[in-house]
């Protein structure tokens, strides 16, 4: 049986950083840089000069610091790019609006995705590898589900996952409260 903290030990550094659960070393002074500033600088470089121009040296120059100082926050350029892509997606268009049918909801979601890619066209060139695990990837992945899966089927799937009977009124009440 794994001890306390075992789950955190298995969490990839990039994912831990994106979710804000990676602990900062307590040794030394508080760093002048932050992960958010580094990711933002990387996005600015990619937006203005293209993804190929992103390097630890170029990002450090934009932040007026030494390239090695970035490694306190990101372990590699690959990790930086992964975090940049998550930041580039921006926030999800949000939940279903009152009176919004599935076509309008999917349309709103698609236009939001298009807007993100127009702001950051380089993000479209990063291949998708695996399931979404970054915060904004998950938001973007889950956002259209209520429009694609009919509400009754969604409730049944949720009920099944929670071990409830969707045909029983009390179970249905419990399910709809979780939506």
Molecular structure report:
- It is a single chain.
- The chain has 179 residues and is mainly alpha-helical.
- It has 2 domains: 6-88, Homeodomain-like (Arc Repressor Mutant, subunit A), CATH 1.10.10; 91-178, no CATH class.
- Helices cover 58% and strands 0% of the residues.
- The chain has 11 helices and no strands.
- Helix 2 (13-19) runs parallel beside helix 6 and helix 3 crosses helix 4.
- It is elongated and about 55 Å long.
- It starts with 5 loop residues before the first helix and ends with a helix.
- The mean pLDDT is 79.
Please describe the structure with a list of short key phrases separated by commas or semicolons:
179 residues; mainly alpha; Arc Repressor Mutant, subunit A; 2 domains; 11 helices
């Amino acid at each position: 049986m794994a001890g306390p903290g075992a789950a955190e030990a298995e969490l990839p550094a990039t994912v831990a950083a994106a979710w804000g659960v990676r602990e900062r070393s307590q040794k030394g002074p508080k760093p002048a840089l932050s992960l958010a500033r580094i990711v933002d600088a990387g996005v600015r470089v990619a937006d203005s000069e293209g993804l190929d121009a992103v390097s630890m040296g170029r990002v450090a120059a934009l932040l007026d610091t030494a390239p090695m100082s970035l490694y306190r926050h990101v372990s590699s350029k690959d990790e930086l790019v992964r975090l940049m892509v998550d930041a580039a997606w921006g926030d999800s268009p949000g939940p279903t609006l009152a009176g919004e049918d599935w076509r309008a909801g999917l349309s709103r979601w698609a236009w939001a995705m298009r807007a993100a890619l127009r702001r950051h066209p380089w993000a479209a060139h990063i291949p998708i590898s695996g399931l979404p695990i970054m915060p904004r990837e998950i938001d973007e992945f889950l956002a259209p589900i209520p429009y694609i899966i009919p509400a009754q089927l969604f409730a049944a799937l949720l009920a099944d996952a929670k071990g409830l009977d969707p045909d029983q009124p009390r179970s249905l009440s419990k399910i709809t409260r979780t939506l």
